Amino acid sequence: EHDRVSKVCEVPLAIASCPTAAIKPAKVDDMKSVAVKNERCMFCGNCYTMCPAMPLASAEGDGIALWVGGKVSNARTVPSFSKLAVPFIPNEPPRWPTTVQTIKKLVEVYASDANRYERVGEWIDRIGWERFFEKTELEFRHEHIDDYRLAMTTWRTTTQFKW
């Protein structure tokens, strides 16, 4: 990745974008690159926005979360937030077999069970989350439980825009 950093990125911009000063300039094999101090990094992604070649991937902690059922439009029903379907799938580039298999399973179950023109979120609201996990054969884990302590104040709020 150091080769890509020197070719793709403006190193001073990547360094300046870090709010915790976790990125320092480095030379690797006579190439301009960066070194990330992991103890200081809060994984905000600012540096990645400035430099997509940043060496941030972690082999054991890097993964994918699948969220389903959200929508932004005001059509038919009010906008809704996405909900967590799969909290962690290991990141397995370049073909991502586990991710593809999981998404394929979700889409196949949705296509066979949903009504015509029904969105994923509407389908889940109709059958319920318990049946969603049964039908898709996804494991329900502790990460699915919303334990945000101030959640009660937002239960009756909506993302719907009203004039």
Describe this entry's structure for a reader.
It is built from 6 helices and 4 strands; from the N terminus they run H-H-E-E-H-E-E-H-H-H. The protein has helices at residues 2-8, 11-16, 46-50, 97-113, 120-127, 129-136, and strands spanning 23-28, 31-36, 63-68, 83-90. The strands form 2 sheets. Strands 1-2 form a two-stranded antiparallel ribbon. It has a two-stranded antiparallel ribbon with strand order 3-4. The longest helix is centred in the middle third of the chain and has 17 residues, at 97-113. The chain is elongated, with a radius of gyration of 21 Å.
Keywords:
163 residues, alpha+beta, Alpha-Beta Plaits, Sulfite Reductase Hemoprotein, domain 1, two-stranded antiparallel ribbon, two-stranded antiparallel sheet, 16% strand
Number of helices: 6
**CATH fold category name of the largest domain:** Sulfite Reductase Hemoprotein, domain 1
State the domain count: 2
Instruction: For the record, give the distance between the C-alpha atoms at the N and C termini, rounded to a whole number.
Output: 50 Å
Sheet/helix structural class: alpha+beta
Low-confidence stretches: none
Order the strands across the largest sheet as they lie in space. 1-2
Describe the largest sheet: 2 strands, antiparallel
Indicate the percent of residues in helices: 25-40%
Spell out the helices and strands N to C. HHEEHEEHHH
CATH class of the largest domain: Alpha Beta
What is the CATH-assigned architecture of the largest domain? 2-Layer Sandwich
What name goes with the CATH superfamily of the largest domain? Sulfite Reductase Hemoprotein, domain 1
Task: Give the overall pLDDT as a whole number.
Answer: 86
Care to count the β-strands? 4
Strand content: 15-25%
What's the Cα radius of gyration? Answer: 21 Å
Shape descriptor reads elongated
